[in-house]
Design a protein that fits this description.
Structural class: alpha/beta
Oligomer: single chain
Strand content: 15-25%
CATH topology: Rossmann fold
Radius of gyration: 17 Å
Low-confidence stretches: none
Helix content: 25-40%
Largest sheet: 7 strands, parallel
Distance between the termini: 5 Å
Shape: globular
Bound molecules: fructose -6-phosphate
Amino acid sequence: MAEVVIVETADAAGEIVADEIQRLLEAKPDAVLGLATGSTPLTTWKALARRALDLSAVRGFALDEYVGLEPGHPESYRSVITREVVVPLGLNPDLVRVPADRGPVETAGEDYERAILEAGGVDLQILGIGSTGHIGFNEPGSSLASLTRVKTLTERTRLDNARYFSSPEEVPMHCVTQGLGTILRAGHLVLLAFGEGKAEAIAGAVEGPVTASLPGSAIQLHPRVTVVVDEAAASSLRFADYYRHAWNNRLRVSGGQA
Ligand code: F6R
């Protein structure tokens, strides 16, 4: 079972996750962070930026990237990571990779997997979850063992992400995403979600059967997972009272309480 933390606000979640990242970086200043884009991790990046830590040795791997946007497009995940993470946190841009950033899409999966392995693996992976239950852009049906590869986005995800583009048609149809198997190799998974629109996906990910039909449920296969959600995103969790009880009476033991 994941450690589930139910908080009042997205800002409170950001502070909790920033604490977790700060603890990791105190022990390992050149730790490898798995970086999610989208709206969910923004309070985490803001909380970390306020701490003004020296993060110049941190290495980063983005979860995913759109295919087909022109280089430098403001909504490419390279641009988003630069704007939301690299600049405000003072990361070294040379140490931050995004899928397909150094070659053609055809070989991007293999190349990215090799780069992650060469970096020694991701220490802490930040995750959001889509309304389809995707983590990364692993849409329903994704193999639980999948590695970085090209995927076709669901129409639902394209509509969800249309808010960042001038029209829904502009949202790319394809992406390169770390696979579920890639994500499961990280040392620690931290999944965040806010708002009622995520409640079903969170309940499925944390408590539902492990199934490719709800890719977020793959987190149940990982021994060290922290899920940080607000009350609305927690509203369909069957064991919410127990999660609150466990968090309020937590014992800090290394490795967490999967
Ligand atoms: C982003 C990613 C996606 C998002 C998910 C939620 O890199 O991999 O899984 O985390 O689509 O997006 P937001 O946070 O915008 O609701």
